[in-house]
Input
Amino acid sequence: MTAAVMLVACGGDKKQTTATPEISDFNFRVDTFADIEILRYRVPDFDSLTLEQKTLVYYLSQAALAGRDIIYDQNCRYNIAVRRTLEAVYENYRGDRRSDDFAQMTTYLKQVWMGNGIHHHYSSDKFTPHFSQTFFNEAVKSIDSSKLPLAEGQAVDSLLALLGKVIFDPDFMPKRVNQADGVDLLLTSAENYYENVAQQEAEDFYAQMKQPDINQPLSYGLNSKLVKENGQLVEKTWKVGGMYDKAISQIIFWLNKAAEIAENPQQKKVIETLVDYYQTGDLQTFDHYCIDWVADVNSLVDFINGFTEVYGDPLGIKASWEAVTNFKNIAATKRTEQLSSNAQWFEDNAPIDPRFRKETVKGITAKVITVAMLGGDCYPSTPIGINLPNANWIRSQHGSKSVTMENITEAYDQASLNSGFAQEFYWSDTERARAKEYGPLTGNLHTDLHECLGHASGKLEAGVSKDNLKAYGSTIEEARADLFALYYIADPKMVELGLLPNDSAYMTEFYTYIMNGLMTQLTRIKPGKDIEEAHMRNRALIAHWCYEQGKAENIIEFKEKDGKTYVVVNDYDKLRTLFGHLLKEVQTITSTGNFAAARSLVETYGVKVNQTLLNQVIERYATLKIKPYKGFVNPVYTAKTDKNGKIIDIEVAYTENYTEQQLRYSKEYGFLPVNN
Ligand code: ZN
Output
């Protein structure tokens, strides 16, 4: 459906203002620990905003940080206690801070910050502490107990007994979100969306609320915790005066300030409706807010703030709190507008069966944004694209906003440039030089073509639905959008529209795509396993199909050098023709709902893994010390005021490191108590 797109990113526009640090002077890499690298992102063009817009960004950014504790508590009810205890030890421990135990505890604390709790942000598995419980107990006892998150009258020993289980017992709450078949998903998941409620009870509770005949259904259960009290199921709503009151009141404080200096009446209405929703918890008001938000297309500054995505609930009902403050990247958005306004030309010339072309195609209006602040479930790990709102009826009747976060992809890109990746895996300096010059540009253009045109192109035969392809549907759909992008990025139209500088820049996108699909993406697969994730299957499918079809003419080749395997593309023209052929086939499968053909294509080319190559890729990655997951630190905004307290400027700084930022956030935005 909608949702956050997590990709191995590529991108970065080359425009700068005088005040934003140049890419070459900017330190994108901040910290590494466990399987994580922390990066920093720039906020290009912040200084081109008016004082009102900067102030609006500032207020909305405060609102984005004010809800930080909510996501900790949502992820697991012990997270705030764990975080605050670890932070107290980190800041106050006077024993040997150079001991291995202390170092391991610090790593664990950094992991807790990254996961917004004791579970991994991606796998949702509980972190393993590599410091001893004896050390931990002694360290906690050695510090002033007023620094600890003790409840009224609670003894330190009782806190330690609880945390001993939470941190050190691998069998206690081992998984945040359990998706395994055949067990009670709520009783086996550590998330804090339900308490003392079995899966069947929760499903029954929400099933009786659903009214199937209603075409504008409310998002029942979205903004509450479901608990059993005295044998009764009760929703604890997240609102003023309800659960999370203290954090929500702070969010509202900043939203009210933002409403006062909104850019236009529509945006003011959006913010006021959101405040109303936070005050009442009323889901009808939430829908009004979503509709108003979609209609706000003229503001430069925009934001997400609220209970949004449902991936953290095994039943997909309850939403985690997230926030993103941003403003439109006007130059890059022109690029997406160029594509949208030529959408019909692309459709009419697509290399697919004319029966399946759309007579009138409407490009999706998507904008490119500059992220100014990440919060809640979007921090420290963030998506690079978001498409909201999630309610299907609002999407079909009012549309949706799709955003690409280009300054985030820039950071990913810049960090990988110096990682040694190209040196290790690219065949020659020709490919390396091309990637350096055109990689970010073509990577972004690929994303634009994929999102704005690829998914929106083509049509289904009467009576066919996308559900016909069942479990293969999302892999085939992603392949269709990728092939559309790959085919057209090599089209002379790109140069004609001024989107690419010459007729060879596209080659770098072809090369990296094929190399990734045939080889380097295997780094995410565990030895002995096959490919499961839809996007990865799609890339493998395209790359392997083209490799096989092009074998006779040696279009794509595996070459060996010093015992290492490389991918070489020998004929870019012919590779484009292959992309066109496969697009035609995939479009026909989609349009006719041909399940058997979809299964055959995916199973033949997209699933199986050459285990020898997989092991080689993992070994080569290990020598590069590239971390598989990235998180971010935010910039720091400071309001400069005159002697009357009136804001005269907002300054942005990029100096805070990961630990400093997390500790500061805990102090400045630690609004929630340990037990909510
Ligand atoms: Zn897609």
About this structure: Residues 450, 455, 478, 481 surround zinc ion (CB under 6 Å). The radius of gyration is 26 Å.
